[in-house]
Each structure stands twice: as structure tokens, then as C-alpha cells.
């Protein structure tokens, strides 16, 4: 897949071709499409890496590693708070565990569902939004054509690499004369879809390169 994807992306988009040639080989890291990965993603939400890692390790010491629905459901609210989890995240994890234990969320079936149905299936869980579901599609289910239009890194990279350079220079010059910094206007979902149209069916691969082009840590 990778060789075919890179040939397609380099042929269809000169800007992306330059990024790919600068970054080098495609090395996306994947994780199994299992309960543990989704629970870990909830714990890591809105925390920096070190703090999230500390809380995760405390929590896993109580619930078990790898995390399971049964291991989480046996914990009390006080135990979860003692591990460093907020009341909100504790509720999210309990909801994920309860829906998994009841069969409402079936990880075994996800591989056979189209992307939009996977997103719908996962977002029934409190605390899991479209972005988290899209990351699961890309990094766990290995779907090749995901475009996370709400992802800040992808939006910033598109702004940096695809914004009209002459217009950007003019805006910068005008802002300089006015004594103000140029305001960054990130692309809308519609603009992102337009930019990424030529990347189909390998938009996930393209997004990985956009993340790397900003020297951002990828999963």
C-alpha cells in the first residue's frame, strides 16, 4: 500500500511531493483496534504527555494493564479520582466500559464497518468525539483515506503549505505597516476537502506527512 500511496500523492500534488521528499519514509505507528487504546486516548485527552503518562500508569496499576471494561467497572469513583482522573474523565471511562461490557460497543465488528459507521459507533460513548474516532480509524483500524478536518495540526500545515504565498506576503506587509501581526486564518473543512481532493484514496498518508512537516509528534 505505502509505495502505491506515495506514488499517487507525489504525482497528484507537487506541494505534497516536496514534503514527502523532505520527510522521507512513511513510518506511521499503529496500535491494535481494542478497548485499551480507546480508554488510553480518553485519559490522554487535554493533558501534556508527562502528566498523562503519570495518570495513566497510576490508573493502570488499579484497573490492570492492558485496560479492560471489567477492570474499570470494578473501581470506585474515589479510586479513579485518587489516580488523578477528573470526575468528567472518570464518567467517560465508566461509560466506555459499560457500553463495551453490555455489547453496545463491539470492537470486533469495527473492522468490517465503513468509516462513517465506525465514527457513529464510537461517538455514542461520552467523551469520544469525531476527532478521537478519526484517530482510531487512522492509527488502529489503519484506514487509508481519513481527513480529520477538525485536527489543528492538519489545518495549520494546510495553511502553511497551501495558502497563496503572494497574498500572504501582501497581508504580512500591510500588517507590518499597521504595526500588527498578521492574523492566521486556518482553512475551513470545505477548503480542506478541496485541497485534499487529489489525495484520495490516501488522505491518511498525506495527513501523516503534514503532521511531520510541522515537526509534530504523531501516534
Going by CATH, the homologous superfamily of the largest domain would be Hypothetical protein, domain 2
Radius of gyration: 20 Å
Main sheet attributes: strand count, strand direction, barrel closure: none
The appropriate CATH architecture of the largest domain is Orthogonal Bundle
Q: Helices and strands, in N-to-C order?
A: HHHHHHHHHHHHHH
What secondary-structure arrangement, pairings included, does this model have?
Layout: H1 2-12, H2 14-23, H3 35-44, H4 49-63, H5 69-73, H6 77-82, H7 87-102, H8 107-110, H9 115-122, H10 130-139, H11 152-162, H12 165-178, H13 189-195, H14 203-213
Helix pairs in contact: 1-2, 2-14, 3-7, 9-10, 11-14
How would you characterize the overall build of this protein?
The protein is mostly helical and 219 residues long. Helix content is 63%, strand content 0%. It folds into 2 domains: 2-26 and 148-213, Endonuclease Iii, domain 2, CATH 1.10.1670; 35-139, Hypothetical protein, domain 2 (Endonuclease III, domain 1, Orthogonal Bundle), CATH 1.10.340.30. The longest helix has 16 residues, at 87-102. The radius of gyration is 20 Å and the shape is elongated.
